[in-house]
Amino acid sequence: MNRQQYDADIVVVGAGPSGLVCAYEAVLAGARVVNLEKRSGPTWSRAGTLYPRVLEIFRSRGVAQRLLDRAFEIQGDPISRFGVWGGMQPLNYTALDTPYPYVVMMPQIETEKVLGECLAEIGGDVRLQHEVTGLTQDADGVTVDFIDGDGVSGSLRARYVVGADGRQSSVRNILGVAFPGHEAQRIAVNVDANIELPFDHPTNSFFNDIGWGMAYPLRKGLTRFVVIDKKTMDDGRPTPPDADAALEMLRRVHGTDYGITSIHQITQFGDATYCAERLRVGWAFLVGESVRVHYPASGIGMQFCIQDAFNLGWKLGKVATGQSPAALLDSFEEERLPEIHRMLDMIRQQTALQFRFDEEANALKTYFRDKLLPLPDVNRMLCEDLSGLSARYASSGVESAVSGLRMPPIPVAGEYETALDLSTQGQFVLLDLTGADVSRMTSPHPQIALAGTIGPADHPALAGLGCVFLRPDGHVAWTSSEGLGSFDVEMLDGWLLPEDASRTAVARRS
Ligand SMILES: Cc1cc2nc3c(=O)[nH]c(=O)nc-3n(C[C@H](O)[C@H](O)[C@H](O)COP(=O)(O)OP(=O)(O)OC[C@H]3O[C@@H](n4cnc5c(N)ncnc54)[C@H](O)[C@@H]3O)c2cc1C
Questions:
Q1: Could you tell me which residue ranges the FAD-binding domain spans (predicted)?
Q2: Is the CB of 303 under 6 A from ligand 1?
Q3: 166 C-alpha vs ligand 1 centroid, how far in Å?
Q4: How far apart are CA 314 and CA 329, in angstroms?
Q5: What superfamily in CATH does domain 3-48+107-182+274-354 come from?
Q6: Domain residue spans of the chain
């Protein structure tokens, strides 16, 4: 079947952060993508943060500043240089080698709004009030069944389908992907109150022998108070507490109810943990919360969902449009499932401490907070891990400190500021690090941009390197100790299909 015989190249089920990012990447690669979303409008805001790696991802597509502008519009001062680990707040993100050495406080609902606008601008097609009810796969693709807002049934035929439909994922259930894990045993509560933040800093967390607490602004006039109440945390409540009970929890744990008289919303969330055994079945893929459920320790859940969606989106887009070989899609599960397991372990390490309030546990937490976490190497490692900056994928070429990691944000020659900015259209990049004039060279493939540094690159992780081959997501796929002339066109196998006769070695124009 040729592409035009399908209604879309890719149907993405869900238009939460994962669905929007995945669709954006695929549309950028030239794919025809339809998002089917059962909601009729915005939903309850869960995530309240944007982390450094996610901001870098958005920067690499030219949209980070838009999100930052929106965050500043909503909150005035949304930047927190400090982060939480295990409910403790000594992490200092300024240690990171990134243009965004901080956590931005931004309600998920606003992040989704900006991402939705960006997707619409490049030709995305998000259909609200379309609930997916079934899908079938055959040799040529998938048929996705839905019911629209008027109760009318329909179906779309596509080459690929992506389940970005959250923790109850219909796609995962229909595919029969195993989802082992356990239900919540302990519960935390959010009280979103119509009150200005009573602290002089955007976040503030503490623990004592009766629980844990934190507060941060959601937007002007609306503050989120989070509480783990040792007395009630394992009651197994199916629904959130009412206003009286929630305020009582605040008085018990925070020591005050802050004079709250008007509550916008009370929600609860627990330490339920699940993880899908597979991320792919045939033409169908799973991303985001359809793949995992966990306690939102450190506020990293959406960050990792977005990184999964980013990883899948460009690959699907390039394969669906015939630019890359289908085998590229195998690397999605190979690369992201281990990262998801690593992230779930990071969550477990934190909940092991955060939900314990006996004398021994509090002594250990105090030791972590005051002695261990502030150690510079520990601090940097945790900030990198929580941000997703330590994700390292398979790579080839000479061994180096950056192999497989995302390229550090070194300055580059020409119109762009840093190496993070070289792939705004989602292209592969060959980056010379010797200071050679790349404007006089010819790329080995139309899908590969050439770039260079201003003089030899000066970064400890790049010592001994002459050039790097960057994937569209900014990860280093190949390294050489020599300049661009050393690029081996065989390297393209697995990444890009040959295009006409243009696949040649890097050539110097006369
Ligand atoms: C209390 C709490 C606080 C959190 N705080 C943070 C934080 O500070 N930072 C952070 O990074 N993360 C945080 N998270 C996690 C974050 O909210 C999730 O990781 C994120 O929402 C996952 O995005 P998603 O797109 O994968 O799924 P979702 O946001 O759940 O989106 C799935 C979408 O699919 C749609 N859908 C479902 N079924 C169908 C269907 N059959 N047909 C069509 N559409 C369908 C849904 O309507 C929904 O819009 C928090 C989570 C909780 C619970």
A1: 8-345
A2: yes
A3: 5
A4: 10
A5: FAD/NAD(P)-binding domain (3.50.50.60)
A6: 3-48+107-182+274-354, 192-269, 396-508
